[in-house]
Design goal:
Layout: E1 73-79, E2 83-89, E3 96-102, E4 110-119, E5 122-130, H1 138-141, E6 148-154, E7 157-165, E8 174-181, H2 189-192, E9 194-205, E10 212-224, E11 229-233, E12 245-252, E13 261-266, E14 269-279, E15 282-292, E16 298-307, H3 313-316, E17 318-328, E18 340-352, E19 357-360, E20 366-377, E21 381-393, E22 403-412, E23 415-423, E24 433-442
Antiparallel strand pairs: 1-2, 1-8, 2-3, 3-4, 4-5, 5-6, 6-7, 7-8, 9-10, 9-16, 10-11, 11-12, 12-13, 13-14, 14-15, 15-16, 17-18, 17-24, 18-19, 19-20, 20-21, 21-22, 22-23, 23-24
């Protein structure tokens, strides 16, 4: 495995994670009357015939119903490469979508507007252009024709993906999964207090070039107290004395700009923004990681934290369609790892049987599933027992190329978040690895 320079040298990857999603940050008859006459009654012979009845008055057309104009709804949340995003449906007009970026690690800012075609709960967005009221930077506007977005709405939740977004510095284009909510009231401190299992990934980018310096993938647990006190065990199950433990706080963010959001601070540094969602008695946290390291380089990424559970094979068995960003090994210019996102989306169908074997329909590879265990990718592989996640090692550590390890976390019965590591193919110009984040949907 090749390693990056800087913080630690290291491997990188992707495997299809799925998802269909959208996000927005600011956008934040009558009837006629009929009348008729009846014929008169006869009185016997010799009586002249009754005069013909008066014809019915034609019915006047009903007053047409006034079409209902959809009400604009804003969904605020996270895009998986590590930004906060807002998606507003039916804004600035019915049939349109407004997508706004905030505090981006990649120079994304302002808003874009597109048209949607709706099929059930799925919104396919096309024709994106700059919002004249809050235009994005010129480097975004210049490439909007290649950006695609698809969202699915279920109740107050919006999920989906945006592909082909440009970035201000460095090579490649951005693709990410979107998870957002229209609920503006914050989840209460009581409902936040819990132990959470998480999967998350983070990347450090050189400020000078915008290219990757190093990446990490973590599966661990975090405890949040009713007072907002936090302790994160980055690579293991929770304990008060875990290794690689960090303490901090989870407090309400600026509710005017980010309604419902919290700010996560660990080790005395602000790490980023957390969006909490509570459904069916379970709290899930979606984390936008955005901070500076001690060298002035940007750390970005995302994570999903779910209230801890111990998994059984019955919970994960079945067919899963997984989607994740594509990766290019064309050598980037400037300092940094020779790999970048290429703006595409990769899809793969995985089938997990009751015996704990997973098969990839794309590669025909099979591997064993290890329940309640994570393979942490921190410059080396660090296995750990972590309730609520499952790990797959597709190819042995010594293999020259291909997908190597993948760590999943079920969020609910239909959705799993994951990070995965792959090697470059033998035909690629360089042999770096990459860590990619994705989503799987059952079906």
């Amino acid at each position: 495995m090749k390693h990056g320079s800087g913080l630690s040298r290291w491997r990188v990857w992707r495997i299809a994670g799925a998802v269909t999603v959208s996000v927005a940050l600011a956008a934040c008859g009558g009837d006629g009357d009929g009348a008729g006459s009846s014929a008169g009654n006869g009185s016997g012979g010799g009586t002249p015939p009754s005069s013909p009845s008066t014809p019915d008055t034609p019915q006047s057309p009903g007053t047409p119903e006034t079409p209902t104009t959809p009400q604009a709804v804003t969904y605020l949340g996270v895009i998986s490469f590590g930004d906060t995003i807002a998606v507003t449906l039916d804004a600035p007009a019915a049939g349109q979508v407004r997508i706004r970026f905030s505090d981006s690690a990649f120079g994304l800012a302002g808003a874009v507007i597109g048209n949607y075609a709706r099929s059930g709960d799925v919104y396919a967005v096309s024709g994106l252009k700059a919002d004249d009221a809050e235009p994005p930077p010129a480097f975004v506007t210049a490439l909007l024709s290649s950006v695609t977005a698809t969202f699915t709405v279920s109740g107050t939740a919006l999920t989906g993906e945006i592909a082909g977004l440009p970035k201000q510095l460095g090579n490649g284009k951005l693709t990410g999964q979107v998870t957002a909510s229209s609920v503006t009231a914050p989840v209460s401190a009581t409902d936040l207090a819990a132990t959470y299992t998480f999967v998350r990934a983070q990347s450090t980018y050189y400020t000078s070039s915008g290219n990757l310096q190093v990446q990490y993938g973590y599966g661990g647990q975090m405890r949040v107290g009713a007072d907002g006190a936090v302790r994160m065990c980055q690579t293991s199950a929770y304990s008060d004395a875990c290794g690689m433990g960090l303490t901090g706080t989870l407090v309400l963010a600026d509710q005017t700009s980010y309604p419902g959001a919290y700010t996560l601070t660990l080790g005395g540094k602000v790490w980023g923004r957390v969006f909490a969602r509570r459904e069916n008695g379970v709290t899930t946290l979606y984390f936008d990681h955005n901070q500076m390291d001690t060298g002035g380089n940007r750390i970005a990424g995302s994570g999903v934290f779910r209230q801890a559970q111990t998994l059984t094979m019955n919970q994960v068995a079945g067919q899963w369609v997984c989607r994740q960003p594509g990766v290019s090994y064309d050598a980037p210019t400037g300092i940094g790892l020779r790999v970048a996102l290429d703006g595409s989306v990769q899809e793969e169908t995985l089938t997990i049987d009751d015996a704990g074997l997973v098969v990839s329909a794309r590669t025909n590879l099979s591997a064993a599933v290890t329940l309640n265990a994570a393979n942490n990718l921190i410059g080396m592989m660090l296995p750990a027992a972590v309730p609520g996640v499952l790990s797959v090692n597709w190819i042995s550590q010594e293999a020259a190329s291909g997908l190597r390890t993948q760590v999943f976390m079920p969020i609910d019965a239909q959705t799993m978040a994951y990070y995965a590591e792959v090697n470059a193919k033998a035909s690629d110009p360089v042999q770096w690895t990459y860590i990619a984040q994705g989503m799987c949907r059952k079906g």
